[in-house]
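Ex. 9. Protein: DUF58 domain-containing protein.
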Amino acid sequence: MLSPEVLHALRNLPLAARQAVEGFLHGQHHSRQRGAGLEFSQYRPYQPGDDLRRLDWRLAARSDRYYLRESEVEASLTVHLLLDATASMNHQDDNGLAKLDYARLLLAALAYLARQQGDAVGLTVLHASGHQHVPPRADTRQLPRLFHALEQTTAAGRFPAPADLQSLTARAQKRLLVCVSDLYEEESEIRGLLARLRATGAEVLLLHVLAGNELRFTYRGALTFEDLETGRTVQLNADQQRAGWLSRQQQWLRETATAARRQGFDYHLLDTAEPLDQALRVFLQRRQAAL
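Predicted structure tokens for DUF58 domain-containing protein:
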């Protein structure tokens, strides 16, 4: 698997998404159902009302019996991608890759993978003034729409107010919602939104994205840290604070994971320094469970 840093360096989101997914799908077991797809499965006797175009006329000529060729088609659903584009997502790892860069790569790859599975895919970008929405579709022009929206996304401000997000809670059948966020919030506003969406019947896959230097606190010496959303600053000695930081962070991550799973979310922590394969695998597993 190519690293996120290499994929980002391509500066071509459609190509990066295809490269990330291309090798991953090989050997994967897809969820399938009987239907009129392209891959032959078996024969079954003709019944009145069946589509005669699926009748095997050669077999009928040889045996004087009428059989239809049954195929396998992949089951599909609606996948709704949700991107946290608040200012904290601008935080960069030591390699210069921002959490927003990683999130864009990840969501582009998930969109590509979902279309490969035959799903309708949509995208909502959450930002300070509300949200940008690309309605779910399954047509051939949807991926370029999604890639363009992701490429144009910038991170700024704080999480939007609940009143600005009411339209997101519309009920949809067979919907899998995938949220990518760093979960930096003041009063659980992100998880509050996901809980409301979960209450509409959506299956929620929460991908918690943090940079490697956040997870491992790789900073050295005396530094000034700035909150990207509030502008508040704090001065500290990284070497002196490392043990306490890591201890408090691990406690926060445990509490976050426990709370998310208690709310019915499928929660996974992702490191921006790691390839996308874990998230793609988790997505396929959750997709199969949602069908």
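Check your answer against this statement. Residues 40 and 153 are 42 Å apart (CA to CA).
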